[in-house]
Write a structure and sequence with these properties.
The complex is a heterodimer of chains A (122) and B (260). Chain A has 122 residues and is an all-alpha fold. Chain A contains four helices and one strand; from the N terminus they run H-E-H-H-H. In chain B, strands 1, 2, 3, 5 and 6 form a five-stranded antiparallel beta sheet that branches. In chain B, strands 8-9-7-10 form a four-stranded antiparallel beta sheet, sandwiched between helices. In chain B, strand 2 and strand 3 form a beta hairpin. Classes of the chains: A mainly alpha (122), B alpha+beta (260). At the A-B interface, helix 1, strand 1, helix 2, helix 3 and helix 4 of A face strand 1, strand 4, helix 1, strand 6 and helix 2 of B.
Chain lengths: 122, 260
């Protein structure tokens, strides 16, 4: 087992004992589970979904333009500085959420709202 | 525990309530706490050593809400805390209590018993790994000189540079190859700790991996440590959502695909 190179907490990544949010649950129970196909009498309909961040990976001009746009928004001096800072400070046992937020802070130094890090944990 | 009246099986489905089935476990089933789908109480129908975890729902079309999705999971999770349970897909409804026995517990007794045995002592751990957009894009630009040059050129030209499509395509390609390599590496390090694995198609551009692992309950902490080490290696570039252990949702589906 690898020895933690930084941080003091025993676990860097926290395991949630059970699904907490809708995003966790949807793909788990709508597409999975035992299907008693011949015996289901009433189909559940009208599930008012619930926009999940499901931008399907499709090769399209739109996708390419979105990537180009995202790359253009990058502030590489910021990200490099952030990378160095991260190396220096270490993770200090932050939870996953902390890590995500840390990254947000580090990479959104220009004050722009970033919406891309929705992890579905809300 | 419901008493099943055999004559009920002959009745037309005109009863006020239908029976929602969450899953199947061995009898006796510890009573789950709290309300279930459509606010119904959660009960068990037992037959032949099996117990269907059930609750009343209105007949006819049911408009399930987000809360119902969560309730389905919570009820199963609650039972799973103390015993092996086979989760049914959300939305499985029978005409009445007699139908639960006559169409599920009795005719599928052997199959269900075998499934329960197969999943004894096992739980599903679910993992989603997602690139942090800014970090992975910065990594791509920094490590790929052509992309970096193109990006610079477009930046200085401003406006609607037609080369943006070319840049985006190159980024997409680089992202795809990174995803493949990272997903393979994650799986290579985690699969040996699991009995089985179910890898799903990524659903978003920055998703690295979405997978479920069937793990022995006694080895969950080993799996934790392994994943923890992997996650540290990717700190700042991949975020992980890690959940479980839970009933084997992903694996019962594989075991009894329709027609199997």
């Amino acid at each position: 087992m690898a020895v933690a190179t930084h941080g003091t907490a025993s676990n860097y990544l926290q395991r949630a004992p059970s699904p907490s949010g809708l995003a966790d649950v949807i793909d788990l129970i709508l597409d999975k589970g035992l299907v008693i196909d011949a015996y289901v009498r009433v189909a559940v309909i009208g599930i008012e979904l619930i926009t999940i961040d499901a931008r399907i990976v499709v090769a399209s001009i739109d996708t390419y333009l979105r990537f180009a746009e995202a790359v253009n928004r990058l502030d590489l001096t910021q990200t490099e500085a952030a990378g160095l800072k991260e190396l220096r400070d270490g993770g200090s046992g932050d939870k996953e959420k902390g890590m995500v937020e840390g990254a947000k802070e580090a990479f959104s130094g220009d004050g722009r709202e970033k919406s891309s890090e929705r992890s579905g944990k809300k | 525990m419901a008493v099943v009246d055999q004559s009920a099986a002959e009745r037309e489905p005109t009863s006020e309530t239908a029976v929602y089935v969450y899953g199947v476990t061995r009898a006796p089933c510890a009573q789950p706490r709290g309300a279930g789908v459509m606010d119904g109480a959660v009960d068990a129908i037992e037959h032949g050593g099996l117990a269907a975890i059930v609750g009343p729902v209105p007949t006819g079309a049911i408009r399930a809400k987000r809360r119902d999705l969560l309730r389905h999971t919570e009820v199963l999770q609650d039972v799973f805390a103390t015993q092996t349970v086979i989760p049914l897909r959300f939305g499985t409804v029978f005409d009445g209590e007699a139908a639960v026995v006559g169409e599920l517990l009795a005719p599928r007794h052997d199959e269900l018993t075998a499934l329960l045995r197969r999943f004894d002592g096992l739980g599903e751990l679910r993992l989603r790994a997602l690139y942090l957009e800014q970090a992975i894009l910065a990594e791509i630009v920094r490590s790929d000189p052509p992309i970096s040059r193109l990006s610079e050129a477009i930046r200085s030209s401003g406006g609607a540079d037609p080369r943006r499509v070319q840049l985006g395509e190159a980024v997409a390609r680089s992202l795809a190859s990174r995803r493949m390599a990272d997903a393979d590496a994650l799986l290579a390090s985690l699969v040996p700790q699991a009995r089985d694995v179910d890898v799903e198609e990524p659903v978003s551009e920055y998703e690295v991996l979405r997978a479920s692992f069937l793990v022995e309950q006694g080895k969950v902490s080993t799996f934790d440590r392994r994943l923890d080490a992997v996650a540290r290696d990717h700190e700042g570039r991949i975020s992980f959502t890690y959940t479980g252990p839970m009933p084997p949702h992903s694996f019962v589906a594989l075991a009894t695909a329709p027609g199997a």
